[in-house]
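Standup notes
- DV: blocked on the single-chain target, sequence here:
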Amino acid sequence: MTSQNEFLNNIISALAKSKIPYMVSGSFGSSFHGRPRATNDVDIVIDLTLKQLEAFIETLGAGYYVNSDSARMALTKRTMFNVIDIEAGWKADLIIRKERPYSVEEFDRKRKFPIEGSDLWVVSPEDAILSKLEWSKGCQSQQQFQDALGVVAIQTGRLDLEYLHRWAKELGITDELKKLLNAAGRNKGTKQKN
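- DV (later): unblocked, structure below
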């Protein structure tokens, strides 16, 4: 049976073969910068054309379930679609990158991590925090807040607080960021990053 890491590697390989830029985000992505947390799915932000989408679906092959119509609709509406490993049940949420300025900058700031002989593009720590706070506000999820708190705790002294405050204001999550930084004891209001 396929492990979650093998599943992720297979998805990333299919994205690479289809020349689709991507960024691992969500709880899996924030685990690279904060406290690890088990999750049954992987969130991957992608930026692609219809031709690339069709190549990706074809590249995945028979071991995976993708509803082609849902994938095309997700591309048109800039939402998301799923890829499921039929045997193991692992799921990837492939999220079409939004056109809003924050989402474009977030995608441009992704970081490269070497994993098992290959590179994996992952959300930056600041953007993991902002995304978690946005989700936390939208669905009142304490788990999302805890994930963001874990990133702040592990990344002490390396976070760009100026960037966090600027985008928190734009995204309407200034109060959530203040609460988070106060909970972490790190609300200095200045840039930590060297």
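- Follow-up: Residues 125-190 form one domain.
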